[in-house]
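Lecture notes, unit on protein representations.

Consider one protein chain, 176 amino acids long.
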Amino acid sequence: MLQNKKVLTLTNIIIGLTIIAYIIQINIPNGSLWLGLNIYFFNNELYYQLLSSIFSHGGVEHLLMNMFVLWQFGNMIEDYLGKFKFFIIYIVGGILTSIGTLAYMYYFNDWANVVGASGAISVLIGFVALRVPDMRKGMVIWILFISFAPLLIGLPIAWYSHLIGFAIGFIMGFIL
């Protein structure tokens, strides 16, 4: 028999909500532009993009990859810290990553439409890197790999969002 405790984790609920958000995104005209993080944040005052961009994705493959990594790290961290602190790390860390990503795009005038949970997931990876010293080197290598390897094969990726999220997660590791 399945234990509800393991199935109804906050991580799994966030995964479910992310899948629902993606279904909504692909069923509204220009859903990626309205829900992603981009220049419309300033031009049209779409402040909700700080949060909605975490739940929108660039395709099914992008969604599945991110949800698999979230399932791994999220459940582990949620088990370690509890639901409330996990929620703070993921959602607040994700929003702070969105703010940092906006600052990068604004400062460097390098506008893109940033979608995906990668920044918030990078917060989790940064948190683990601080809290589990034996895993630190692996987490740094992992974040560098997921940030730059896709660029080498021509995939458009918000590498700066990954690095910003990792740094925020590392800092949050000191706080929580």
